[in-house]
Design goal:
One of its GO terms (molecular function) is UDP-2,3-diacylglucosamine hydrolase activity. With 272 residues, the chain is an alpha/beta fold. The chain is 23% helix and 25% strand. The strands form 3 sheets. The protein has a 6-stranded mixed β-sheet, covered by helices on one side. Strands 6-7-8-9-13-12 form a 6-stranded mixed β-sheet, with no helix packed on it. A two-stranded antiparallel sheet has the order 10-11.
């Protein structure tokens, strides 16, 4: 094989790899999830939540987003809804898309703060999005309710999280929305039944053998997917569920490898 043929082959292979990585970054992979618990109120059996996090720079498409979704009861945004340099009109468009689906609840992520937290909050407020900034709201059905809490994102790594752990009663099923799962570090209990987080992008670029090379040590353990944690300190059988999403957008480069973009529809099921 001549040098020119080798170079042409390598270039074609490289172009194919880049195309694949772009496709993983731009996809609309829906993950259907079910959470089963005896603590879920009977009237919330079948309650469906669209969870999407780390949108960053991506514009949302009504058609593509809803193509695999029937109906949901609420939308949960896990932070990094935008980032610095993204036009606020894009953020406004994305929020309008989501607000047409169902009531929207959100927490901010670190990139939302870098983009200008006051401006981001203004767009959310004008779009009808409820921002859960160390705040608990109660979703009601018939005479029953569940608690939904959102954790405030610190301004930087130098600033600790507040001591907020939600205002749910002991007998209430409690969902906690937090952008960065590092909020869990050092905690012996979560105080929540279902925790939803993002931030990690699942590593975004996951290499064969080496894995997600860009993740810090904590995130090697809490990278993406489902985990079981203690809701109360000293539990022998952990009862809190944690989902860390790979996220919908990308950070730094618009590419993904072995880690496709995703969003979730989570259905609550009352354990008989």
């Amino acid at each position: 094989m001549s040098v020119l043929m080798w170079i042409a082959g390598a270039a074609a292979l490289g172009a194919g790899a880049i195309g694949w990585m772009r496709a993983e970054a731009r996809g609309y992979r829906l993950r259907e999830e079910e959470v089963v618990s005896e603590r879920i109120p009977r009237s919330f059996d079948g309650f469906r939540m669209l969870f999407i996090t780390d949108i960053h720079r991506r514009p949302l498409s009504d058609e593509k987003l809803l193509s695999n979704i029937s109906s949901v009861d609420c939308v949960l945004l896990g932070g990094d809804i935008t980032e610095k340099g993204v036009p606020f009109e894009r953020l406004r468009h994305n929020m309008s898309v989501l607000a047409r689906i169902a009531p929207v609840y959100a927490v901010l992520g670190n990139h939302d703060l870098y983009a200008g937290k006051d401006a981001v909050r203004k767009v959310l407020r004008e779009s009808g999005v409820i921002l859960l900034n160390d705040k608990t709201v109660f979703l009601k059905r018939d005479d029953e309710c569940l608690a939904l809490s959102g954790v405030r994102q610190p301004a930087s790594r130098k600033h600790p999280y507040t001591k907020f752990r939600g205002n749910a009663g002991e007998d209430q099923y409690h969902i906690i929305l937090v952008h960065d799962p590092i909020w869990l570090k050092g905690k012996e209990e979560t105080h929540g039944d279902l925790l939803l987080a993002g931030h990690t992008h699942g590593g975004q670029i996951v290499l064969p053998i080496a894995g997600a090379v860009r993740l810090e040590r904590f995130y090697k353990k809490f990278k993406s997917g489902w985990y079981t944690l203690p809701r109360k300190a000293g539990e022998t059988i952990h009862s809190s569920r944690l989902l860390i999403s790979r996220g919908f957008g990308t950070s730094h480069i618009p590419l993904r490898l072995k880690c496709p973009a995703e969003y979730h529809v989570i259905t609550l099921r009352k354990k008989p």
